[in-house]
Amino acid sequence: MRRWEVVVVGAGPAGIAAACRAAESGARVLVLDDNPSAGGQIWRNDAAQPWLERFAESGAELRTGCVATDTLPEARSYVLATGARELFVPFPGWTLPGVFGLGGMQALVKSGLDVAGKRVVVAGSGPLLLAVASLLRKRGAAVSAVVEQADRTRMAGFGARLLLEPGKLAQGAGLMMSLLGVPFYTGSWVESVTGRGSVERVRMRCGGRVVEQDCDALAVGYGLTPNTELAALLGCHLTQGAVVVDEWQETSVDSVYAAGEVTGIGGVEKSRVEGEIAGLAAAGLQGLAQQLFAERARTHAFADGLARAFEPRAELRKLAQAETLVCRCEDVTRGALAGMKSWREAKLQTRCGMGPCQGRVCGGATRFLFGWGADSMRPPVFPVKVESLIETRQS
Ligand SMILES: Cc1cc2nc3c(=O)[nH]c(=O)nc-3n(C[C@H](O)[C@H](O)[C@H](O)COP(=O)(O)OP(=O)(O)OC[C@H]3O[C@@H](n4cnc5c(N)ncnc54)[C@H](O)[C@@H]3O)c2cc1C
Asked: GO: which molecular function terms (predicted)?
């Protein structure tokens, strides 16, 4: 008898929901996550408590600090719930100390980074902008400006869509209220940053004019991009940078399911409901899974609105100059990538994406800048501890 019936990779909302539904049906479930504890990017607060408690009581076994590669423990089915990471768009000065990813800044502040009295510009696109600006202000930072690349019309369209989601509307209104008095620029973006040793000044394109602002830090991010490496390694079909799934959340590979941000960016509710469907389907409970289809459709409609409203504009592709770094691990500039036709050619000729992050930062950037995608994936994909490899093999 196999030790595990369902192996779930990722213990964020999607993975936890999948594991709960599968384990509660009596299946033997193993959950692997590379973080020290369960919760993923967002389920670390009180709101997540009911799901974390349910998970603890479900009978699923959790292994943390464990990077899953293609050497997964043997099981009848797998659920990939590997989430997403930030999309960075290179611009002159983006590698200066003091320039943070939006999510990175959020995580650092939540874990104690002192920002009191610091002048911070918050820029990029999407709902995370307001969440991070609000958090910074609560922790005593002087938020100098919030700079959203989406224009007013798109923002208004998204606002109208929120009327169908009273909870999210109230959340958005609360964040806006917490930022009263902070200049909020729409249809605007950071063109470059300068400073001696660390960021001192931000140059922004706001409508038709240039605005310059002194600051101590810049938090910038242009949305999220799915973590598809493991799915690609297992041979799952991808489209537009996300894993393709059918109505049961099953990928193009038999008995391999995917759920959450890895199938497309859409927020925590989409991740949770997709996770539930995947967990039920992986455990053979299609009838119960089907009952959640309508709820999933609502979250997909919200995700579509999100993607339309905050799609990064074409002008952002022109920010990086010939001397601007694109791959910061291997010091590869945009100029060095000129004339390259593919990610493979860029890797072979310049070592772009061959450093410690293995393309987790510049891979998203080059997909956005040049439309490249990874055409092959080699294990172990990420730097991984040998004990992680041994542990997953022996399970
Ligand atoms: C940086 C960042 C900040 C965010 N901030 C907010 C916010 O403030 N508010 C909000 O509403 N939403 C926020 N989101 C979005 C929110 O996190 C997602 O909607 C939600 O967490 C998605 O759930 P998920 O289960 O799909 O993925 P995640 O929550 O990302 O969980 C995926 C888990 O899989 C693990 N994992 C990935 N690959 C492997 C592997 N190979 N082996 C083992 N483990 C692996 C990851 O470490 C992670 O724990 C943020 C997202 C990011 C990336």
From this structure: oxidoreductase activity
